[in-house]
Input
Amino acid sequence: MSKPQKQIHLAAHFPGVNNTTVWSDPRAGSHIEFSSFAHFARTAERAKFDFLFLAEGLRLREQGGKIYDLDVVGRPDTFTILAALAAVTERLGLTGTINSTFNEPYEVARQFASLDHLSDGRSAWNVVTSWDAFTGENFRRGGYLPQEERYARAKEFLATTGELFDSWQGDEIVADRSTGTFLQDAKAGAFVHEGRQFDIQGRFNVPRSPQGRPVIFQAGDSDEGREFAASSADAIFSRYAALESGQAFYTDVKSRLAKYGRRADQLLILPAASFVLGDTDAEAAEIAKEVRRSQVSGATALKHLEFVWNRDLSGYDPEGPLPDIDPDLGENHIARGRAQVRMYRDPLATAREWRALAEANNWSIRDLVIETGNRQNFIGSPETVANTINEYVQADAADGFILVPHITPGGLDAFADQVVPLLQEQGVFRTEYEGTTLRDHLGLAHPDETGGTERVAS
Amino acid sequence: MGRRIRTDLQEGTLLSASPSSPLHLAVALDGTGWHPASWREPVARPRELFTAGYWADLVAEAERGLLDFVTIEDGLGPQSSHFLDPDDRTDQVRGRLDAVLVASRVAPLTHHIGLVPTVVATHTEPFHLSKAIATLDYVSTGRAGLRVQVTARPSEAAHFGRRTIPRIEDYHAPATQELVTELFDEAADYVEVVRRLWDSWEDDAEIRDVATGRFVDRDKLHYIDFEGRHFSVKGPSITPRPPQGQPLVTALAHDTVPYRLLARSTDVGYVTPHDTGQARAIIAEVRAEQERAGRAAEPLHLFADLVVFLDDEPAEAAARRDRLDALAGEEYRSDARVFAGSPAQLADLLQDFQASGLTGFRLRPAVAGHDLPAITRGLVPELQRRGAFRRAYEADTLRGLLGLPRPANRYAAV
Output
């Protein structure tokens, strides 16, 4: 104990609607019944995790013009399931991904303030933004938002909800029976917001909640997204769980804080991380290989290749060689409702590189997709995984991790039982919750103590 | 017991019940109660209105009384003593929590009672709301419903800034009727979208076919392709079909245009007759609208709303009402009939109303902390003695408690 060690933050991502989640495993349970969510949340709370995390997508994914049927499909409403989980947990933070494009500030602010009251201060909001007309087809506004305006909208959305949360100070309700005074301020909740995205005014109708405002997460990775996080978020849900890329991201984002008058500890970096445990490192590596094969069936491999080729490859044999035709360089239209399609910025180069890899290693299409796809971030015995996580956090690759199990709902159980006690023994993870709110768990000040999260100019 | 209801269903008529058949009871929860001075009663817990425990206690009490369901009031702006405009009053409860989230928060703590939050159709997204109520149905394993409401308040439109709603100056003016019709037509479209989205997944759409690698059979997922004046919604829902298939849809109505919404869109309508003659007239009007909408064969419960001050001694109830009115500085008025009296008197009144063709009641406790327990511990035993109310929950779902079958999916191939 020569130098003070950072305390690790841990969170649990409910398995999502992508191929990370292995629904074909005999142990896999329901992805929609409440009992699955309750099991998952209780495991996370038993392990003293900081919070549970839910992603969101507002339109079922399609590929080749048809609903994508190879991954888990279907999820609950984020707010509603989190409110129910507040009833079966006592301390666990409840983080929901809510879109700023297909919602309105007044309603989202009501829902988060309500969730914060109903959970005694455990709510958090992962603010995401989308612009696609595809998703817009489910909403009143339709596909109204140009891509370049989505962060402008998100920033103003967040700023506006902040004004709504702050429209109640917290001392308005006196409920004095003798004088008949319920409110000591007739103007409680009054707000006016005149901006480019929103021109609204009136009275917000939810009194100030225990955390003042929900904890704010941001997940975008672009320069704009990082700037948005540095200016306005309490935590980042990042994709860089490896040591070096994590350190680079960590340094980059934390260095952006000063210009907003913020300290490094006011923004937590929490990458999503998958894991596979075994009794030994060798066993874990074997299991991890099997899991990756389950995650990428032949059918899945072809669909993933289509993200790059941008054309129908259903005629190809997934156990055979890569297509010798080149990707369609037109607008990517093959897959809709997914973010990862945009990851391939130069499809021709990717195709050339993959063909070379496949030829050199004698890989089939399926082998290639497995080998080039995401490996699990932490693979090993409980000791190895605990040590690696701790090493990464102490080396400033992260402040902790949002763990993404591949089995619903029991995929977190072994981590809770085997890895968490080791981190606790090392003195880098809590053995009991020290506070009651999510801000307490994350070491974030209450907005009233800091004068509020720095406002974004709108 | 349930058999009479079942018979009515098979006849394909508006549900009705004879005086000897069981009646249905719901309670409308709103803050500390419906009387504006209710928060000043010693039994009230005004400082706990924004805690989960407060709502959990109320719903547990309602479930103790074997009630069919609770409704939870809501709105997209602060409560007001004016119909259309906000007020600056500080002597009444102001502020509330989102009703859907309150319902979901108490769902895992209860086991039988239905949970029916209010939702406002006017400024919100039917896609979001459909999955929210479907999720409430999952969380409660089949006890979810919604009460759909519209808002004509210009001040609430300004909270969204998406459209302006003209201020109603004269209720009988043609422009007013046009606005009201538009708002209720939008609500009917909204319910239509919500219902189609609930059906957009067939019950057996999730197949988990390891051999072909398919999690769902996409032929059993359906686009709803709704196009209306205020919104178009493509679908399918992101949430699978809820346990009840179609959670309960309810609405409160006082006039022809809203009666049309009951007839077109709901499973339970709340109406506000002040006597049995009015009750008969309202039932006839809703029935005619139901035929006009081509839904004559669909089961539709009609419940009367009543505000209740309930005490063992009738004089006590009346005195309590007077005392609260004095605190409020004005006589309490309501769209619904206001009852003050004993459980036996209320049971008589309910049975009289029931004889006119109503199948149930939504009681609005004047003081939640007093009148809700008076309903569950006074009225309910009185009705049970008369053989007019259940002695145990007889079904696992809210539709089941109301004698409503689980509907076939409109998109499923027969």
The longest strand of chain B covers residues 301-310.
